[in-house]
Specification:
This protein is an alpha+beta fold. It is built from 19 helices and 31 strands. The chain folds into two domains: 364 residues, Beta-galactosidase, Chain A, domain 5; 399 residues, Glycosyltransferase (Alpha/alpha barrel). Strands 1-8-9-10-11-18-15-14-13 form a nine-stranded antiparallel β-sheet. It has a five-stranded antiparallel β-sheet with strand order 7-6-12-17-16, covered by helices on one side. α9 packs antiparallel against α11, α9 crosses α12 and α17 packs antiparallel against α18. The N and C termini lie far apart (84 Å).
Length: 817
């Protein structure tokens, strides 16, 4: 018995030293959000019915891949590639079934093998009918901790346990790899059997070059003419050992470099090394039964190494690679695969063309997807470890709830996924700064919506501050501009039942947005026309506060950034003073929805806009002091003291600050009533209102807006009356806004109300990740029924303010002088 034991021990020691060393990268972090693969959700939430139907793609969503400004795509938690944001600013949703992972496994000595598409869904009709589309619902788990996600395939279904880790290199303070159009798929395989098992992973893909034309929400107008696939192989050194990269380039027949935004390449590839073989089938028809792929794969796990290729005359083309290896008992192995794409041109409706950021590192020809894929294969392990190091201090912080630690990262997806643009115009000088922006959402497709960025850009400020400062420089450059173009003021026209118009842009007014995809964004701002934003009372204050926020939270060293923004700050604050019609020191609201709550009317002095204005005066004072403009600092300080006195005397009612002093909502308890004090806490600006008052207001908001609405399970309702009833005067007063709720929770944390803060924020998690199925499409808003408005929204990025605003983080806050 002892001899047998020692022999067995020696065998396991040998296997240990021969097998690749396992790392944290082959485990799913506890903080990751999980759901059984393909499990339907009963009674999921729905979009609100509106005259223009809102996007509602269902609850199947998964974390996207793709870098900032590179275009993104998503594989759902059931296993199908379905969400496509490859054309800048355009949302397309349609499953492409030939884009798939499949597995073959056969245990040594057995006559049986398994060949299975790793998707808990199947195509309708005859397409790919020979493939085995029978993966059971719930057989394993999907997990996500953006930018990573995992598919943990059940060992009950497969002889070898497979865990797929997928990600793109989204990394903090990284302005290179974060832009890459690449997805890394790392297959971690473990053989827990007593016999060797041969395993093969099949990666099939459709040539989708040219499918991103137009603004439709699917591929109904797909064009395949001129598409062609090529097999390619290249010697590489991987982990210090020689190997061979093998894959398929999905291309288009063209003469010269790429010049159109729909043109470029895809690549799927893997690495061949001792014991690992990569076989391929360069071209097959995804509309056929797929037998040319499935017959060889299901018999041996290999493809026929067929390089037969042809130019499409309109029919779709697909190709596939298979990676085959054998695992000894107890052996672990990691197999890397990548998907890369190279669509270097961005073009919007106005016709202007741009180069994407990643072209600085791979060139602008549009024929470099292979090199991008190579970078992903050779660096994937390093990138994965870097993501783990970034996330580790947050996800292992036991002082925070586990759900919160996961949601922190999963709400980062929108920066890349919301049509983000990181680009420079054609023919621009080499030192031209790259413009950056991402959409408010695809239902409201405005780039860099300023009133929403005020909340949603917190993660940019924290992890990519140079990007966020560039966004604010872009806004600063618009402040002095005037555009006389006449545009319909839609809300006013509906109210009065006759046409009212607004000037597109007035000098001194911050624009609502930097433009839309269908026009000429970054050159034609302020496309939003529901309200006349030249008269909005919050935009200018928010801009000034964001400038000061980025300066302080990036280390209070970038004086050049302040100098660049200073003329715009002065003009913005001067512009607001025209709205102080009573001379009381505060800008009065104009009796129409003139702030981010764009159907909720405010009249006279208001808590929301007034608190923002007071905080902006303090920020302006501090900017002036940093730049040694003492006279300006004294001016802003005097204006602050005057406005503060009015704010308290007119709006404080002994418990909270009233919504305003003249509308029918005057006594409504507004969740966001002290947004200016929230930013003051965040940036150390001191007391906008006395601490006793803001603590009283926060307690009132928690007791009423949070706990009297859905028993505290849905976040903070925007408005509620002192009798505990939610008014029905407008849609927005009855809604919970996910991003403003996170801002409120951050404010509570800053004021020492930790328990209330996490209870408030947990309502958002409950709705999004548990009850309604809004993961990776977090909405702007929902009502008491859970019905939502505006999915894939920008504002929920405000959750990161909860990490940036700790109760004791700033010590004794400075007082206003």
């Amino acid at each position: 018995m002892k001899i047998a034991f020692h022999r067995q021990a020696a065998l396991w020691l040998l296997l240990f030293f021969l097998a690749p060393v396992a790392s944290s990268q082959d485990k799913i972090p506890e903080a990751a959000w999980k759901r059984p693969i393909g499990l339907p959700l009963e009674n999921s939430g729905r979009a609100k019915p509106e005259s223009d139907p809102l996007i509602d793609d269902g609850y199947w969503q998964g974390a996207p891949v793709g870098g900032f400004g590179a275009g993104t795509l998503s594989r759902s938690y059931r296993g199908d590639f379905a969400r496509w944001h490859l054309k800048a600013g355009v949302h397309k949703y349609q499953t492409v079934f030939a884009n798939q992972f499949s597995v073959y496994e056969k245990e040594e000595g057995s006559d049986e093998s398994v060949a299975q598409v790793l998707c808990a869904c199947k195509p309708e009709g005859q397409a790919l009918g020979s493939w085995n589309w029978s993966y059971p619902v719930g057989a394993g788990d999907y997990a996500a901790l953006y930018p990573k996600s995992w598919y943990d395939y059940s060992a009950k279904e497969l002889p070898v346990h497979l865990l797929l880790e997928q990600f793109s290199p989204i990394l903090p303070d990284n302005y290179r790899e974060t832009s890459y159009p690449v997805a890394v798929y790392r297959w971690n395989a473990v053989n827990g059997n007593s016999h060797p098992v041969t395993v093969s992973i099949l990666f099939s893909w459709t040539n989708m070059v040219s499918w991103s034309r137009g603004f439709s929400r699917d591929f109904s107008a797909q064009i395949n003419m001129g598409n062609i696939n090529h097999f390619r192989s290249q010697d590489v050194t991987w982990n210090g050992q020689p190997g061979r990269m093998r894959g398929i380039v999905f291309d288009h027949v063209r003469h010269g470099p790429v010049t159109q935004d729909w043109d470029g390449q895809f690549v799927i590839a893997s690495l061949e090394s001792p014991g690992v073989k990569v076989s391929y089938l360069t071209t097959f028809s995804p509309g056929g039964n797929g037998r040319e792929v499935w017959e060889p794969f299901s018999k041996s796990g290999e493809l026929p190494d067929s390089d037969v290729s042809w130019e499409s005359t309109g029919e779709p083309l697909a190709g596939a690679i298979a990676v085959t290896f054998t695992l000894r008992p107890g052996e672990k192995r990691t197999i890397p695969m990548v998907l890369a794409w190279d669509f270097p041109v961005v073009q919007f409706g106005g016709g202007r063309k741009w180069w994407r950021r990643y072209t600085d590192f791979f060139g602008t020809s549009g024929t470099n997807a292979w090199n991008i894929a190579r970078s992903g294969l050779l660096n994937g392990k390093t990138w994965s470890a870097a993501i783990d190091r970034w996330q580790s201090p947050y996800i292992h912080d036991d002082s925070k709830p586990l759900w919160f630690r996961g949601e922190l990262f999963n709400e980062l997806y929108a920066i890349a996924d919301n049509g983000s643009v990181w680009a420079r115009p054609f023919a621009s000088p080499p030192n031209t700064p790259y413009s950056f922006g991402y959409l408010e959402c695809f239902d409201y497709p405005y780039y860099s919506t300023l009133d929403v960025l005020f909340y949603g850009s917190m993660p940019l400020t924290k992890f990519w501050p140079e990007i966020d400062k560039q966004v604010l420089r872009q806004f600063a450059a618009t402040v002095h501009q005037s555009d006389p173009q006449k545009m319909l003021w839609q809300w006013k026209s509906q109210q009065e039942k006759t046409n009212f118009f607004r000037q597109r842009k007035r000098s001194g007014a911050l624009p609502h947005d930097l433009g839309t995809p269908e026009e000429d964004p970054f050159f034609s701002p302020n496309q939003y026309s529901w309200q006349d934003v030249n008269q909005w009372r919050d935009l200018n204050s928010k801009f000034v506060l964001m400038v000061y926020r980025d300066y302080v939270l990036s280390g209070s060293r970038d004086l050049e950034f302040l100098r660049t923004a200073w003329p715009a700050v002065q003009l913005a604050m001067q512009y607001l003073r025209q709205f102080d019609l009573t001379g009381d020191g505060l800008p009065q609201n104009g009796g129409f929805p003139d702030q981010t709550y764009d159907v909720w009317i405010a009249r006279g002095d208001s808590a929301y806009c007034g608190s923002l204005y007071l905080a902006a005066l303090r920020a302006s004072e501090q900017i002036a002091r940093q730049l040694h403009h003492s006279a300006a600092a004294q001016k802003y300080h005097a204006l602050f003291l005057r406005g503060q006195k009015t704010f308290i005397s007119k709006l404080w009612n002994g418990e909270y600050f009233r919504y305003d002093d003249k509308s029918q909502s005057s006594n409504t308890i507004m969740a966001d009533q002290l947004a200016g004090q929230w930013y003051a806490d965040l940036t150390g600006l001191g007391d906008i209102v006395p601490r006793a008052m803001r603590l009283s207001a926060l307690r009132k908001i928690y007791d009423f807006n949070v706990m009297k609405f859905a028993d505290g399970e849905m976040g903070a309702v925007n408005g509620i009356d002192p009798d505990g009833k939610v008014p029905d005067s407008n849609e927005q007063i009855q809604e919970v806004w996910s991003g403003t709720t996170f801002g409120l929770a951050s404010f509570m944390l800053a004021e020492g109300m930790q328990k209330q803060a996490f209870q408030t924020a947990r309502g958002i998690y409950h709705v999004v990740y548990q009850k309604e199925g809004y993961w990776f499409r977090t909405p702007e808003a929902w009502d008491i029924t859970g019905s939502y408005r505006a999915s894939m929204y920008m504002r929920p990025g405000a959750i990161w303010a909860m990490e940036m605003t700790e109760p004791a983080a700033r010590g004794n806050k400075p007082k206003a002088k």
